[in-house]
Amino acid sequence: MSAQANGPGAEPGGSEPGAGPADPVLADPVLAETYLRLIAEAELRRGPVISGPGPQPHRVWLAATTLAAARVISVEAAWRVVARFEAAAALRTGNRAQAALSGIRVPGWVTQYGALQQASSRPGASGAGASGPVRRGAGRPGTGPTAGAPEIPAAVEVSATLPLPAEQNGWYGEFCLLSLARTDSRAVLTVAARWAGQTRRAAVPCPRHPPWCEVGAVDDRGISYQASLWDGGNHDEREWWDCHLTLNPAPAPETRWLEVGPGAHGRRVRIDLGAPPGAARIVTGPVPPASAAARLLDWAGDGLLALEAAGPRQTAPLRDRIAQILQDLTGAGALQADDPAVLRLTGLAWRLGLDLGPGQPVRPVTAAALPPAWASLLEVGHVHDGPDAIAPFTADLPEIGGGRFALAGLRSARHGVTLHVMAHRWEPHDYGWLTDGTGSAGPPPDLSLTWRAQDSAGRWHLVRGMHWGPESETRGMIKMYLTPPLHPAARALDVIVTGASTEARATVPLNWVADPRDSRPPGPEPGGTSTPPGAPGASQ
């Protein structure tokens, strides 16, 4: 059975009553905890046990988070072994204070991940009855939802460009507004921002940050809203910044329209909040049952291919990390060495030229024997032929894995795709766990949902990274970075969200906006210059 978080005094590796359905493949939690203890004892015989200052992602941490993610051991059982190991390691170095704190200071991921496991596996968690009736507009205008009412993300397509006035540095920019995603308490515009031109030829070099022009909004009842630009990313040399423009307070559910601005020459963009839904088509269906351990290996395979396609990396750390995951899952009895999930991942590693070391089965496989997404990336993972364009669209997904999502447009570039998503009750916890490991502040990877995409030309896309707003103003907004880039001939995109038992597939149209300058009045600011024809991002 799948081991869930157990309370104080429970049996080692035991499960919490009512924690949900068991994994299809039986695993012995006592055997898994024994395996973890043996790993800890072996590490204690090594020296130094834990190197470097501060919390380090050592071997016992990595094994514990692997087994907790595979749900063959509860997070409390994993933490007990880790705490005792760290206390013993601290005593070996003479650090008695650290040894005492190891058993008292419980890291945040123990409670956080335990709550995630219980929420995602609770019977009925994916149905409307688990959270009460689904509704929007329960709160007072601008104050958020009624207490206890679920916030359901919804999106409205905008597809407009707001030219911005010139700044003191001589440059003027523009906000390409893709969509407005909102709940009763949040409203966020997804934006592609860039510098569009200069007001004078003697202007300073192009800034290395997105335009910071202050804009606002007003609705049909005359209520004003403050707009704040967030999630601009690092300051560097780039043409586009994918940002989020947050409206405060959130518009009331009965609001009919918004006007965002003012931009250059007093221009404003009107957003019809009552516009009919877009042309997205959403299909849901069951997925074949699989154990959490098997899902972990498939998730690792997706991450391995996405990183490989994104660019050259140091292969040795990644190879060793994959080998450790396989060793821990097979050693703890979560999977057999000839399990199809094990053979898929080792076959993929063989195709990528990664030697996983002795003890791992190596069976040459053809691309046809791998999942279609993996075969696609093996074939075209390193291409850089994506269209340099923007696709505004919306799609409101049904509840899956306990979360709700609204797709709010994307920006395509030659090297990849940035997809905007508003999420409720789901965050991509420790998405870099495969490459970075985890320290005491990071939980195991959350396998409740996986994301993939396939464009209408047949090319598959995997997630190479995510960025989500940690601040309250952008909480729930996620930027997903997909690789490889979209096929130049793609006219639609399937965004596929897969849970433990259900899959949702949203087909959205790619109505490309090749250059947002086409939608603004001709000519630059008075006396200014804009990007000349033929330059990157200019109209062809």
Extract low-pLDDT stretches.
1-22, 122-148, 516-540
What is the percentage of strand-forming residues?
15-25%
Order of helices and strands: HHHHHEEEEEEEEEHHHHEEEEHEEEEEE
The oligomeric state of the chains shown is single chain
The major pleated sheet works out as:
10 strands, antiparallel
Total beta strands: 19
Secondary-structure content class: alpha+beta
How many DSSP helices?
10
The N- and C-terminal alpha carbons lie at a distance of 60 Å
Mean pLDDT: 79
- Coarse morphology: globular
Rg computed from alpha carbons, rounded to a whole number of angstroms: 25 Å
Work out the helicity level.
10-25%
Q: Mind explaining what this structure looks like?
A:
It contains ten helices and 19 strands. The radius of gyration is 25 Å and the shape is globular. The chain has helices at 29-44, 59-69, 75-92, 96-102, 108-121, 292-310, 315-331, 340-352, 372-380, 433-436, and strands at residues 154-163, 171-182, 187-198, 216-219, 224-230, 241-248, 257-261, 269-272, 281-286, 389-391, 395-396, 404-412, 417-424, 450-455, 460-468, 477-483, 492-498, 502-509, 529-530. Strands 9, 10, 11, 12, 13, 14, 15, 16, 17 and 18 form a ten-stranded antiparallel β-sheet that branches. Strands 1, 2, 3, 4, 5, 6, 7, 8 and 19 form a nine-stranded antiparallel β-sheet that branches. The chain has 540 residues and is an alpha+beta fold. 46% of the residues are buried. The longest helix has 19 residues, at 292-310. It is 24% helix and 24% strand. Residues 1-22, 122-148 and 516-540 have low confidence and may be disordered.
